[in-house]
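Hey, I'm writing a tutorial for new members on how sequence and structure tokens pair up, and I'd like a real worked example in the thread rather than a made-up one. If someone can provide the structure for the chain below, I'll link this post from the tutorial.
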Amino acid sequence: MVTKKTLPEVRDINKEIKRLTGIIEELDENKKALAIGPIRDLAFMRVTMEKLKDNVNREDIIVEMDQGGYSIEVINRSLKQYNDMIPKYNSTKQLLINLFPKEVVNLMDDGFETYVNSRD
């Protein structure tokens, strides 16, 4: 069920999917098909992480939690979720990056290696 409250998140996720899909345009069709899942996951995680970051900035890193007659200070749950999501985001992003061909850097031959290799 989509509510008015969730519409901005859905819109932001779709916007991020569109942005990431534009990046993979140069890939062949098979790799594009493989990229669809990671792109959706990345978009969801990025939007969620932004929301979690906003929560932490609004509430603070340490929050007070009521425990019946007393209260304790605990780490903000949004911060914990954000920190748990970072490695997953980075590994998913790396999966997407690995679909792109590796660039080969051609170094200009200055003649030194040729000279060294010709000496026997």
